[in-house]
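Late entry, written up from scratch paper. The run itself happened at the end of the previous shift, but nothing got recorded in the book at the time, so transcribing now.
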Amino acid sequence: MSTAVVKEIMKKSPFTVQCQTPLNEIVKTLVKTQQSQLPVVNQSNKLIGMVSQVDCHKALLVSGYHCDQPVKVNNIMAESYPVLNPQDRLSEAAIKTQEETADIFAVVEEDRLVGIVKRVDLLTLLNENLSLCSPA
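Output as recorded:
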């Protein structure tokens, strides 16, 4: 695991949502992809945020109660989020993400989204690495 890099396990061409995507479309995409979060990108595929099931849940409750104006991704996305570089070692990525609560990490190169890494992929690698160290 010491020489493996994020690029080797990242999912290329992940599902994303664009700026101004309506809440109902975000929810449909989250349900369809079975992901807990989606990267938000602009027309140039620059990562500008992350939107989660929790963000949508809160927005649906509030907008449904108040019958507000239609909610768009820009209103609810997180603008602060952990990012990985495709050349980061997997061991570094595992350490970098251990304190995060996210299940999906954006992989960014030159401000452009190039992929995602799921926490479960990092867990799998860490577990495989542990099994090499000692018998089960």
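The mean pLDDT is 88.
(Scratch paper discarded after transcription.)
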